User: Fold these one by one.
Assistant:
Number 1:
Amino acid sequence: MVAPPDNDVLWARALHFTHNDGSPALSGVSLGVQEGEVLAVIGPRGSGKTTLLRCLSGLAAVRRGEVWFNSVPVHKMGPTARERLRRDRFSWIDPAPSLVPELNVWENTALPLMLRGTSRRRAKTAALEWLVRLDVGEVARKRPHQLVQAERQRVCIARALAPSPTVLFADEPAAPLHRSDRAQVLRTLTTAARSHGITVVLASPDADPAALADRTVTLLDGRRVNTVHLPPATETEGRAACSLSV
Ligand SMILES: Nc1ncnc2c1ncn2[C@@H]1O[C@H](COP(=O)(O)OP(=O)(O)OP(=O)(O)O)[C@@H](O)[C@H]1O
């Protein structure tokens, strides 16, 4: 077994992944992510971006290939150890916002901090700061159902940044936003991550985030390729963006 390079916070080698129904998702992907780097993973729908992020973050168990986090072999961890790793070191943003309906916005944002042992008071202060930064400070006391989709997604982004994770996995984080909001939200996310030294792995079906990233990796049919033709962002917006009208 070859040890990963010292300056890579994440490192994957010859990653293969097949879904339970036999659908192939990754076919020998290798990559390294350096500490503090913003890495864009781009590729068309179904190219394996989500599966790659799930494998790197320990959400999906790796059966063939290796994933290392800070020289720790994630591929050898059991489900409990991977869950602890995700709770303590990683954050995740889904393309569609998902919040706890019974909690208000600041409580949702503070939750990951409290799960990591931060006091409620300190977690609330941090949550409110991040909500203001994401332009949703004024809805801090509302419940998720009182927000529009774009606001809920901004809350999810604040929640992911609030604990200052070592790595933030962002799977199409701007998908539910109007096109005019996307660049601003992606810029806020990447700027905030850089100022806090957070490593970001950001998946996108269009090339828009590449301009904000330090480096771009392109996937096609579960493999890394050098270039791929991607349709303009307007054609890749999909269902989430269509359902968002304020
Ligand atoms: N739960 C699943 N069961 C079976 N096949 C799946 C599952 N999830 C994804 N796949 C398949 O695995 C391949 C990679 O999917 P993945 O979601 O990782 O790609 P993606 O690039 O993130 O696409 P998208 O932008 O549509 O989310 C595709 O062929 C997809 O149909």
Number 2:
Amino acid sequence: MTAQVIDGKAFAAKVRGRVAEEVAALKEGHGITPGLAVVLVGEDPASQVYVRSKGKQTIEAGMNSFEHKLDADTTQDALLALIGQLNADPAVHGILVQLPLPAHLDSELVINSIDPAKDVDGFHISNVGLLGTGQKSMVPCTPLGCLMLLRDHHGSLSGLNAVVVGRSNIVGKPMAQLLLGDSCTVTIAHSRTKDLTEVVKRADIVVAAVGRPEMVTGDWIKPGATVIDVGINRIDAGEGKTRLVGDCHYDSCAEVAGAITPVPGGVGPMTIACLLANTVTACCRANGLKEPQGLTA
Ligand SMILES: NC(=O)C1=CN([C@@H]2O[C@H](COP(=O)(O)OP(=O)(O)OC[C@H]3O[C@@H](n4cnc5c(N)ncnc54)[C@H](OP(=O)(O)O)[C@@H]3O)[C@@H](O)[C@H]2O)C=CC1
Ligand SMILES: Nc1nc(=O)c2c([nH]1)NC[C@@H]1CN(c3ccc(C(=O)N[C@@H](CCC(=O)O)C(=O)O)cc3)C=[N+]21
């Protein structure tokens, strides 16, 4: 079997198109322009690339983009003061603090100082609790993007066996919550999981969010399963070049799987599209307006 390729890039373009329509309607009907503030501390080159493409896509969707680039040695107090200003600014509907932060900063404290209503990453403890109890929240962008792709491919996810490899707060855990919300039978695997290959082999849906290049190979995959590869790993491609690979070994997995997301062009573009979607949702909620359909979980 050769897997169907789940085209995250094309799906993300559709989501951004929906976002742009909603933005136009907010402007025309209510004179409101959704605004997203992105805070980057330090000069990590990969983070700079993401922040640039977030800013570009925010503007393309018709929204306001506010970029705050702070020195790597910015103090905790200075960062908290900036977040306080953004929390109070009515033109800012979404705030994203790019992670990881430099080691001298307390990420938990910083994230939890964001107004939960503006926490478009969905990392604030209030949003984590709301998601865990099935209440309306801001949903983390990467898992939300994966859920949209899965719903589009499968229709209903009810009763399917889902295995999430990785238990981070930003991907693995919220992914598991969303799959549970859609009535999957969910297993969360991690570095201490025994017989990982056997666990993965039972899955109808595999979500790999491990950070290990090409770790999941085709012999781990149940024939016909859906493979969602969250991993983004830059590896040496020889001759001084690099290339991006996922946490799944694409060619061997694609031989066995029913469907698979590529890297690049899979989950990555969905993450940014969902960030824009969350910003519009936050803007509607802040203004007491009906929120757009199909852009949240
Ligand atoms: N496409 C996108 O938009 C995004 C992509 N990413 C990518 O997704 C990947 C995961 O990111 P993130 O969740 O932040 O990573 P973390 O490093 O925070 O978490 C990795 C998880 O994988 C588990 N793990 C590590 N090694 C193994 C192993 N050998 N076997 C089983 N489990 C293992 C860890 O287990 P333990 O807890 O036991 O240590 C941990 O729970 C990365 O490649 C990252 O670049 C991340 C965010 C967005
Ligand atoms: N507060 C916070 N929120 C995040 O959501 C967040 C973060 N910090 N820190 C870093 C990770 C990583 N991340 C990605 C977003 C888009 C692509 C993406 O668009 N990738 C393209 C390829 C891009 C390239 O060529 O480098 C693709 O997969 O097709 C990847 C990774 C968001 N993250």
